[in-house]
Write a structure and sequence with these properties.
heterodimer, A: Rossmann fold, 7% strand, globular, B: 2 domains, 17 helices
Chain lengths: 304, 461
């Protein structure tokens, strides 16, 4: 090993230049693999195309993995031939994401849905649901709405920079997905271990934190959808155990004149219809889709 | 405004830019203003406290420098008492109130003491010890008191090391403040390597392993095996190292860019072969402080075997209590004291190979971290029992050990490599080598950063 030779600032610039090139390469790769990272990114990449189909379809279903697994579109088309719908269901999304993606993808399109169906369980629509900053900023928020998002959600300066960088960079914005892929590749039992880890860590937090029940995000979302003349339907979804609707949300639904399709207790639905204690399995999806088609028939197509 | 936030780097960029265009005196004014701003970002209400402590020690040092022996002692005792009193009120009052209540209850007295609502000023333990060392050094004649209040205030509040050290000595830091700083060609290179490694240690190592460790220490009873606990303890060992050493490296790195050299606080501590070696490698600024201002004044090893062990135990228990107001920290210090005593006794006469010595002492260190991290002594004992009697490989332990290997193995290999020869340092590599290492570090920092960043552990101390 040679003695340390004093390096000049200019020489150190070579190191920094190499680093910048490396980062540029990473960004390029991140953009190239963006749509193939997982099924969810592939779905997000189709948003423009899906919204483009609205000219021939009357409805849009908006939600997350609960509806992704819960609504069988092929079965729905057979059960409800008079009413067709698109489905936009990015996983782990909630009302903050739905509001922004509706603005970014739906409002810029030529057609708006006549009916918008939003499937949720309690925490998806209240303000306490934490923002998934990188994904929200990268995929759901339009450039013009970023400052509004920062202001409304009271992002601190660090979060604002993170959000801005996520919006322009696939390397930063898709980082959680990259991380998961890398760690899943290198670490045995990563997903199962992580889930156990999360349960242990959040178990204590969730039991000690009382959920805040305000609906500012939801109110903004409702106002935006209704301003376009779309009829908004709220669908509280089935869970293995019956859950109560928040009185504040019920009041909002009534005040804004929203439709309600209550899927919390679908006849014949049991805990066995859920694949993992949260999402509907095949049999559950069949029951939900049948119920949904019937609801549409009763509340929309027969009684517009 | 933590080191791994964009705010800090924006703040530092502005300070560093302005710094380049100023003369020495103006640089000091800028650094002092920036340091107070940095501290105010945590909690502006405690600016008064730090200024008050600064003023007390500034005046005390001047009086000690001028007065006769009696007056010098009076000023020393007075200033030390004020600092320790403030530290006691902010950090230990509730601990003593609660402990007294529990003790009285145990011996049969009904006592209801209300805990007070006291916010712990960030970094108070660090700047209290730093000011104490200055006044004591002046009293001992090892440092001359400074007459410039601004310089002394900067010595106390210098932002890179204000909230989590290293605890600097006046003999080292003060001359770098009072005298014009020399711009050395290697400062940028060395600073960059320190910052890179520091960010890697904090963001990639500490924050990722914090999640694993938190899971184990919050897991419900009965749902966890000894192997899970073992993985959790290893995870915490690397978390606290990554967290604290990471902070120290970044502090030293940004200081280098300002032309100020801070002391090295960590030297590959998990390669220590025994407790003395460990304390020469772990939180060196605290261990040397305790040695110079507590252990040696108590008599050190000069007053017989019994007193040496007493002094070691006392120093380590106080060192434990310095970390926090809880019995688990006291026990942590106690165990380290016992280890120092046992190793000093040299019960094992056979010379063990270095690798065995390192592995044994690493595991003893991990044992102490178990008590350090546990919420209570009871929890530590339950987890310890699991480690020894209920081993069982689970998907969680595979995941946890996998995480440890992924995040720590390259670090361990690099530390073993660089521990062998002093000149084996990142900044000694040719530029291509440095660039390759930085690419790996940056990739880990960007791609493997956890979703949630945690504060630096040592801020709470």
């Amino acid at each position: 090993m040679s003695e340390f030779r004093v390096t000049s600032f200019r020489q150190e610039l070579k190191v920094l230049a190499a680093l910048v090139c490396f980062l540029a390469g990473l960004e390029l790769i991140a953009r190239m693999i963006s749509e193939s990272l997982d099924d969810d990114r592939a779905h997000i990449a189709q948003f423009d195309e899906l919204v483009g189909e609205l000219g021939e379809k009357k409805g849009a279903v908006l939600g997350n993995s609960l509806l992704l697994h819960g609504l069988n579109l092929e079965q729905f088309a057979q059960e409800s031939p008079d009413f067709s719908t698109i489905r936009v269901t990015p996983v782990s999304s909630a009302v903050l994401d739905w509001g922004h993606l509706y603005e970014r993808y739906f409002l810029k399109g030529e057609e708006l849905p006549e009916h918008l169906f939003v499937g949720f369980v309690a925490h998806h629509v209240d303000d306490s649901e934490p923002a998934k900053l990188r994904r929200l900023s990268r995929h759901f928020v339009s450039t013009g709405s970023l400052p509004q998002l920062w202001e409304r959600e009271r992002f601190d300066p660090h979060q604002r920079v993170q959000s801005g960088l996520s919006h322009v960079s696939a390397l930063i914005g898709d980082q959680p997905a990259h991380r998961e892929r890398v760690l899943d590749y290198f670490i045995d039992w990563y997903r199962l271990g992580l889930r156990t880890n999360q349960d242990w860590v959040t178990g204590e937090v969730e039991s000690s934190v009382e959920r805040q029940s305000s609906f500012k995000r939801m109110t903004r979302f409702v106002d935006m959808v209704q301003a376009g003349g779309t009829r908004l339907w709220m669908i509280p979804l089935s869970q293995p155990e019956y859950w109560e609707l928040n009185s504040g949300l019920l009041e909002l639904i009534e005040r804004k004149g929203l439709g309600l399709m209550d899927a919390r207790s679908i006849p014949g639905m049991t805990a066995d219809d859920f694949s993992d204690g949260y999402h509907l399995g095949e049999s559950g999806a069949e029951k939900f889709t049948k119920w949904f088609a019937k609801e549409i028939s009763e509340k929309i197509t027969q009684d517009p | 405004m933590i080191f791994n936030s964009y705010q800090f780097w924006a703040f530092f960029a502005l300070v560093a830019l302005a710094y380049r265009f100023l003369g020495h005196r103006q640089q000091n004014h800028l650094l002092l203003a920036a340091s107070y701003f940095f501290y105010a970002c945590w909690d502006w209400r405690f600016l008064g406290l730090i200024i008050a402590i600064t003023a007390v020690h500034y005046v005390a040092a001047l009086k000690i420098g001028e007065g006769d022996e009696k007056e010098r002692r009076r000023w020393l005792v007075g200033s030390v008492a004020i600092s320790l009193l403030l530290l006691g009120i902010f950090k230990y009052l509730n601990f003593f109130i609660e402990s007294t209540g529990v003790f009285l209850g145990r011996i049969g007295f009904e006592a209801h003491f209300e805990s007070l609502s006291i916010i712990l000023p960030v970094g108070i333990s660090f700047y209290t010890f730093q000011t104490l060392s200055y006044t004591i050094d002046v009293f001992r004649g090892e440092t001359k008191p400074t007459r410039n209040f601004g310089d002394f205030a900067l010595y106390v509040a210098y932002f890179p090391q204000l909230v989590a050290g290293p605890i600097e000595r006046s003999s080292r830091l003060l001359p770098q403040i009072t005298n014009p700083r020399k711009h050395r060609a290697e400062d940028f290179t060395i600073g960059l390597s320190l910052v890179m490694v520091g960010l890697f240690l904090k963001v990639a190592v500490a924050d990722n392993l914090a999640f694993v460790a938190n899971g184990v220490f919050k897991a419900p009873e009965g749902g966890i095996t000894g192997t899970d606990v073992l993985a959790g303890v290893y995870a915490f060992s690397f978390q606290i190292y990554g967290d604290f050493a990471g902070y120290s490296f970044i502090a030293c790195g940004v200081s280098r860019w300002l032309g100020i050299r801070l002391m090295t606080n960590f030297k590959r501590p998990y390669l220590a072969k025994g407790p003395s070696d460990f304390w020469n490698r772990w939180h060196i600024s605290l261990s040397s402080w305790l040695r110079d201002y507590l252990y040696i004044p108590l008599g050190g090893n000069r007053k017989g075997v019994g007193n040496t062990y007493r002094n070691l135990m006392l120093t380590m228990v106080i060192g434990g209590l310095w970390h926090g107001a809880a019995w688990t920290f006291v026990i942590w210090g106690l165990i380290h004291g016992v280890l120092l005593c046992l190793y000093r006794l040299k019960l094992i006469k056979v010379k063990v190979p270095a690798v065995i010595a390192v592995l044994v002492f690493f595991h003893l260190t991990c044992l102490t971290w178990l008590f350090f991290r546990a919420d209570s002594f009871g929890q530590a004992m339950v987890l310890l029992e699991l480690i020894f009697f209920e081993q069982g490989l689970t998907p969680f332990s595979s995941y946890a050990f996998g995480s440890l290997a992924f995040f720590c193995l390259p670090l361990v290999v690099a530390e073993i490599w660089s521990d062998r020869r002093e000149e084996r340092r990142l900044h000694h590599l040719p530029w291509q080598g440095r660039a390759a290492v930085y690419c790996y570090l940056v990739w880990m920092i960007i791609t493997c950063a956890p979703t949630v960043h945690s504060d630096f552990i040592y801020f709470q101390f």
